[in-house]
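Researcher: Next entry: dihydropyrimidinase (Platanthera zijinensis).
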Amino acid sequence: MASCLLLLSPLILLLLLISASRSTSDSNPTNGFCSVEYDGELSSSSGRILIKQGTVVNAHHMEVADVYIEDGIIVSVRPNIAVGDDVKVIDAAGKYVMPGGIDPHAHLEMDFMGSVTIDDFYTGQAAALAGGTTMHIDFVNPSNGTLSAGFASYKVKAEKSVMDYGFHMVITKWDDAISEEMELMVKENGINSFKFFMAYKGSVMINDELLLQGLEKCKSLGALAMVHAENGDGVVVGQRRMIDLGITGPEGHALSRPPVLEGEATARAIRLASFVNTPLYVVHVMSIDAMEEIAKARQSGQRVIGEPVVSGLTLDESRLWNSDFTTAAKYVMSPPIRKAGHDIALQNALAAGILQLVGTDHCTFNSTQKLLGYGDFRKIPNGVNGIEERMHLIWDTMVESGKITASDYVRITSTECAKIFNIYPRKGAILEGSDADVIVLNPNASFRISAISHHSRSDTNVYEGRTGKGKVEVTISGGRVVWEDENLKVTAGSGKYIKMPPFGYLFNGIDQADARYLASLNAPVLR
Ligand code: URP
Ligand code: ZN
Ligand code: ZN
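Model: Predicted structure:
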């Protein structure tokens, strides 16, 4: 690809780049859509399903049992449930029956770095369902400087949803209006988390003053503060250093924002959250440096959640040095995928409970869009895929390898996310009364990942060629069988917006800690 491009005239190159910046639907026309059907109907016999004799896995317990579903709800979980002929029966003997995955971190149809992510709420969610994820939480960016306009625009984007979803909200500036809107988002719109970018200087980056204001506001609302932790000023210096050295390709991305910048920002955010005494959620933990800051804070009793993502857990940076631009550029995301060794350390931290749940940061740009940064890595749209691959890769990397149990797997892919964002046990559990978002995973079957067969709209896949054990054979979303026998059957508009109430479990005890702090001051001194 690189050598091809060198032969192109500047005019053709310019036209290519313009089309890249607009492109939202020109990739992967075959598999992304042919296997996805709009049918407008409930696809299983009037919503009554019996999953027979599987090993039902919850984060707290595992047992061989049947699971009976009616009208989108799990009605019964016990052995030997008898049903009539009008019920669809799924034989799960020898297989695991688990809550559908919840992905805490995705960016569908997001305007970012001069482009729009290629997967929208239809294709991205269809891909998720094919991979066993039944809910995701997306990040709403403000629109025209207001949170309300941003929220309204994402509600429109999500009209074609094929599975349930929730929203985090991004805060990029501070004034009284934003502060009031945060309250509105929490009290009326079902948002209980706000994200602050400590990088991307000149676009969404915030400074420490804003972060402190945001942390205090989050605390008062019972909303969780989330951070993208990289030192944004340091990134700019690192980028300039690479450009001055003549390093303009994708490897410059990794070299310009090393782990030390992620570790510094993670430590800073943790200390500011400690100063405010409010919980903190660190998104996409990519390095040992950041993970160790989280470990230290948690050991000292601070409420800090660390979210590694599939790319950081299963890939290393060597691919950014590939001599083919298209191949190297597809791995550009921030913070960068790190040197080999960080991946294993993050896996071990996840197994040890130092990190709590796994996201994807699914933020997919196709190879034409990635061309925007040909000749200048700073312009390559940042982001990789993962929403379809997460459940398989985590099973293979963590359970099949013996690092964690099936119950741990449910905890890190579903339950913990539901608990943190305060929607448990409606989501994240196979319990009577929970939503019927369920997967059947066959531990003896294998998966193979390829852009040829995946359901994302992108023409590339960062896990191309990966194989492993453990295959999601059935996905049930909202009581409908949407993935079975390698066939997707989804209905645009069937996904529901899940409101997430404030004051989740991370806020328990915050008042008492504040009271202890006030009592410890011994001030003001009466004079
Ligand atoms: O490279 C990434 N991570 N793209 C998505 C935006 C973000 O920082 O989460
Ligand atoms: Zn981020
Ligand atoms: Zn992200």
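Model: Note for the record: Residues 254 and 336 are 5 Å apart (CA to CA).
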